Amino acid sequence: MSASTAVLKAELRLFGREPFSLFWIVAFPTVLLTILGLIPSFREPDAGLGGSRVIDLYVPVNVLLAMIMAGVQALPPVLSGYRERGILRRMSTTPVRPASLLTAQIVLHFAAALGSALLVIGVGRLAFDVALPGQIPGYLLALILGALSALALGATVTAVTPTTKATTVVGSIVFFPMMFLAGVWVPVQAMPEALRGIVEYFPFGAASQALNQAAEGAWPDWTHLGVTIAWAAVLIAAAVRWFRWE
User: Shortest CA distance to 124 belongs to which of 26, 35, 55?
Assistant: First the structure.
């Protein structure tokens, strides 16, 4: 336990020295929300959205974006870099197992994404009068499952790429479709019905719907939660199956 705690503290210091990663995980979703909130039409009720405003839909989307940034963009190059430099292999010969380092990185990236999510919710409430989530337990469950899917996807990207450069390229290729599925370009709720029906069977489309339902005060649909859980399980299994320590 003390060895794992020491690894976590050391990784926390290193994580704090990465301002660009911290910006993209913690600050960027809030910056994007602020830009969108400054568009006057996004602050007006829309009959096509059931009376909701576009900015109301974008708070859950940007919460999910923080998870995607942490899991798909920030985490994979770190893990791949440790593996490429032989750090994981050398750690396997010490009392501190490589799993301790991987766990520390996952915990730190999840904590940063969670802090970003709280910041998005706070700014949405204070700056744009977006209501706080009406179903808090359901919101937290959807958020955790979305984060688990994002981190598992990032670990899978790391597992199937041989070098840090390849990991960065593949992570970027995966990142943009995941943003679309999460509703960053167009909120899932505003997509045409046929497209929405497809998007909801992908992890971040389902998570986006679950977060929005919880934000409106309803318990998330178990279909959306189930899709997110299923994807997380598949991605975790793939990462475990193909991950190489060196």
Answer: 55
The pTM (predicted TM-score) of the whole model is 0.89
d(CA 21, CA 181): 22
Residue 73 near residue 179, CB atoms below 8 Å: no
pLDDT in tens, 39-74: 999 999 988 888 889 999 999 999 999 999 999 999
How many angstroms separate the Cα of 66 from the Cα of each of 1, 31, 75, 85, 99? 29, 11, 12, 28, 24
Domain that holds residue 143: 2-242
Cβ proximity of 62 and 32 under 8 Å? yes
Q: In this structure, what are the phi and psi dihedrals at residue 230, rounded to the nearest 5 degrees?
A: -60, -45
Coil, helix or strand for 214? helix
pLDDT in tens, 139-176: 999 999 999 999 999 999 998 998 999 999 999 999 99
Helix/strand/coil for 53: strand
Question: In terms of C-beta distances under 8 Å and separation of at least 24 residues, what long-range contacts does 33-42 make, across chains too?
Answer: 33/58, 33/59, 33/62, 33/120, 33/123, 33/124, 33/128, 34/123, 34/127, 37/124, 37/127, 37/128
Q: How many domains does the chain have?
A: 1
- Average pLDDT of every residue of the chain: 90
User: Is 91 or 8 the better-scoring residue by pLDDT?
Assistant: 8
